[in-house]
């Protein structure tokens, strides 16, 4: 591991972009498989007819995506898979992807969306909730002080051009807050509004002209050639069909990945979405792109006892900084005081919790605290769930409920410039958050990213049949996936077993309380898994149709890379900032660490760099 320091006031430069080459892709891919001792034989697939072709992939939506055969003029023309041309390609159909799509469509682009799950029910946006919570107009908008201020300023300026209130009400905000006379409370004056924001936007999109979704499609790699992104590729999960999407412009919107941490106190899962396994992000990493903010995550208190309540607060109960008054220690004392003016700050809240539990001895035996709702109500869905659980005989208001901090959002996405473009030309990413996204952030970054991607796609339009592609890279990826599916080891270990090992190690190193010892232990275990377990990982099911073991095995490579990167980045950051406490360095260190940390693959090593950004132009908030 190397750590260097670099100044980049606006994020990456175009010079950086051109440094990324196809070579780094091949190298990254080789590292991944080298580590697992699987071998790849790219050219052997050229010309052979594969099962996906026989089964035939599911038909694509007619609007926005046109299925075409690659022309004979392309080099090393492969067969056995389908090539699809798109204008704007969005990977991930959650809240962020939807906002990018709406914005790009409104500027006359055609949008093809790829989603790993069943769209509208997938992702964190699909599974968890429908609230619109804002850090729009609060000083906390740049709460760690280390976001790309120029990108944020641009995004806010762009979004402010719209009439926000009308936009919210007409385009999704079905249940805005009302005052006692029944009048709508304008969003602009409210920090928080409740409504079917995401779902309504998805409904709008579904019927929009120029929009198409290919769902249950898992992107496994990006098509990056000569420093430019030409699209993405991956597997249609129901059939196993391999497809390549060529696009004028591509955006990553695949959500935060908490699945590498995934050890929710009583079970091996986290409250983020199990499909968010950083596939696109780690594909970018393997191809030489810098991944930012992997040390940061978001945590909330999730219930652990009675065990039946152990589920996300969207479906169970939980508490965060806004329910601080219901949180009690092991002596029955309230943990947070009403006089504490910082308590509603989520980072402060989590740091305080970490200290109370791990240092001050005020936690429960399970490293949690107690939630006592009493006769009060929790907010939103949590309040609804209290009623629901009581109907099932669970005494939420009378029993002591143990709750412990669990990860629900995570950073770890490609670094972007002020136009939301990554280091690779034509590849955008709407996430620019240290510690994970929220819905308001996805709204303003999403709309702005859609605007910038539309602008870029327009500049690329001249090539009617999509960009020209060197198919060799496609065959390398195809061979990698095939090798994972067909590899057998005598002492084989199932992909889910490997996943649990990654999750336990991730949990050890990436909690709200991080010590050098815990992180070193976590890293040692992750490296052992890479060396000992990945080579043994065997997909017992060899079919192509809905092969979930194959999917898990592919994902494990990404989870392992992200876990190792995240723990190492946390170890490097010798201060306390964000939603966790670093035991040996309990204070914020703005002299040395008021910067973004990025990780990239160089000479088969994870290399870390510090990147400083211009701060947010706060005058944008006052206009
Ligand atoms: C329990 C919980 C409560 C929350 N509460 C709040 C709150 O009160 N207020 C707030 O503002 N925020 C809250 N958040 C955060 C907020 O919900 C998320 O930040 C936001 O919904 C994430 O949207 P997204 O589009 O970035 O990710 P997602 O909604 O997760 O979308 C990512 C999409 O990418 C797809 N995908 C993943 N990998 C691939 C691949 N390889 N190929 C193709 N597609 C892929 C997934 O299927 C998914 O549909 C909460 C989050 C959780 C988990």
From TrEMBL:
Molecular functions per Gene Ontology: oxidoreductase activity
What this protein is called in its record is FAD-binding protein
The cross-references to InterPro entries, in alphabetical order and at most eight, read: FAD-dep_OxRdtase_2_FAD-bd (IPR003953), FAD/NAD-bd_sf (IPR036188), Fum_R/Succ_DH_flav-like_C_sf (IPR037099), Fum_Rdtase/Succ_DH_flav-like_C (IPR015939), SdhA/FrdA/AprA (IPR030664), TAT_signal (IPR006311)
Q: Does this entry carry the keyword Flavoprotein?
A: yes
Annotated catalytic residues? 346
Which SUPFAM superfamilies would you find in this protein's record? FAD/NAD(P)-binding domain, Succinate dehydrogenase/fumarate reductase flavoprotein C-terminal domain
Establish whether keyword Methyltransferase is in the entry: no
Task: Give residue ranges for domain Fumarate reductase/succinate dehydrogenase flavoprotein-like C-terminal.
Answer: 502-616
Keywords, A to Z?
Flavoprotein, Oxidoreductase
What PANTHER family does this protein map onto?
A: SUCCINATE DEHYDROGENASE 2 FLAVOPROTEIN SUBUNIT, SUCCINATE DEHYDROGENASE [UBIQUINONE] FLAVOPROTEIN SUBUNIT, MITOCHONDRIAL
Which residue intervals define the domain FAD-dependent oxidoreductase 2 FAD-binding in the entry?
193-350
């Amino acid at each position: 591991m190397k750590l260097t320091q670099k100044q980049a006031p606006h994020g990456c430069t175009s010079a950086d972009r051109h440094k990324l080459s196809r070579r780094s892709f091949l190298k990254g891919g080789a590292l991944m498989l080298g580590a697992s001792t699987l071998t790849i034989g790219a050219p052997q697939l050229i010309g052979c007819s594969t099962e996906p072709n026989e089964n035939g992939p599911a038909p694509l939506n007619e609007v926005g995506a046109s299925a075409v055969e690659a022309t004979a003029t392309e080099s090393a023309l492969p067969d056995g898979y389908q090539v699809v041309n798109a204008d704007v390609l969005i990977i991930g159909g959650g809240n962020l992807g939807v906002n990018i799509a709406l914005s790009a469509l409104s500027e006359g682009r055609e949008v093809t969306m790829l989603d790993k799950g069943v769209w509208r029910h997938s992702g964190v946006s699909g599974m968890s909730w429908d609230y619109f919570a804002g850090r729009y107009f609060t000083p906390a908008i740049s709460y760690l002080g280390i976001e790309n201020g120029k990108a944020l300023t641009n995004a806010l300026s762009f979004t402010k051009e719209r009439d926000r209130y009308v936009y919210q009400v007409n385009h999704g905000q079905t249940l805005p807050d009302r005052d006692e006379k029944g009048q709508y409370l304008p969003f602009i004056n409210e920090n928080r509004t409740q409504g079917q924001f995401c779902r309504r936007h998805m409904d709008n999109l579904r019927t929009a002209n120029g929009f198409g979704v290919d769902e249950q499609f898992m992107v496994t790699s990006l098509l990056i050639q000569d420093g430019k992104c030409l699209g993405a590729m991956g597997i249609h999960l129901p059939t196993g069909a391999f497809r390549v999407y060529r696009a004028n412009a591509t955006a990553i919107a695949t959500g935060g990945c908490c699945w590498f941490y995934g050890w929710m106190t009583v079970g091996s899962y986290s409250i983020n979405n199990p499909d968010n396994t950083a596939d696109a992000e780690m594909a970018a990493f393997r191809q030489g792109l810098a991944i930012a903010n992997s040390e940061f995550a978001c945590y909330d208190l999730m219930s652990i006892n009675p065990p039946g309540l152990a589920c996300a607060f969207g479906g169970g109960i939980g508490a965060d900084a806004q329910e601080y008054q219901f949180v009690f220690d092991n002596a029955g004392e309230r943990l947070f005081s009403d006089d504490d003016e910082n308590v509603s700050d989520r980072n402060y809240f989590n740091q305080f919790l970490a200290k109370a539990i791990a240092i001050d001895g005020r936690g429960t035996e399970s490293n949690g605290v107690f939630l006592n709702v009493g006769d009060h109500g929790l907010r939103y869905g949590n309040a609804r769930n209290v009623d629901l659980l009581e109907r099932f005989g669970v005494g939420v208001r009378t029993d002591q409920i143990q709750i412990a901090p669990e990860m629900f959002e995570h950073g770890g996405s490609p670094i972007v410039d002020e136009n939301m473009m990554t280091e690779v030309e034509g590849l955008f990413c709407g996430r620019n958050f240290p510690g994970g996204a929220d819905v308001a952030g996805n709204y303003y970054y999403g709309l702005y990213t859609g605007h910038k991607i539309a602008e870029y796609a327009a500049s690329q339009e001249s090539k009617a049949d999509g960009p020209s592609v060197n198919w060799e890279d496609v065959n390398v990826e195809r061979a990698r996936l095939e090798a994972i599916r067909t590899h057998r080891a005598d002492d084989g270990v199932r992909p889910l077993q490997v996943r649990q090992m990654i999750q336990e190690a991730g949990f050890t190193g990436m909690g709200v309380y991080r010590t050098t010892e815990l992180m070193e232990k976590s890293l040692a275990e992750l490296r052992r898994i890479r060396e000992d377990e990945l080579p043994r990982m065997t997909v017992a099911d060899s079919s192509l149709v809905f092969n979930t073991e194959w999917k898990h095995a592919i994902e494990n490579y990404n989870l392992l890379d992200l876990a190792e990167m995240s723990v190492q980045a946390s170890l490097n950051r010798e201060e306390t900032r964000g939603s966790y406490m670093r035991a040996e360095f309990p204070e914020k260190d703005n002299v040395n660490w008021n910067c973004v940390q990025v990780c990239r693959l160089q000479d088969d090593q994870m290399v870390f760099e510090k990147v400083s950004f211009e701060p947010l132009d706060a005058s944008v908030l006052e206009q």
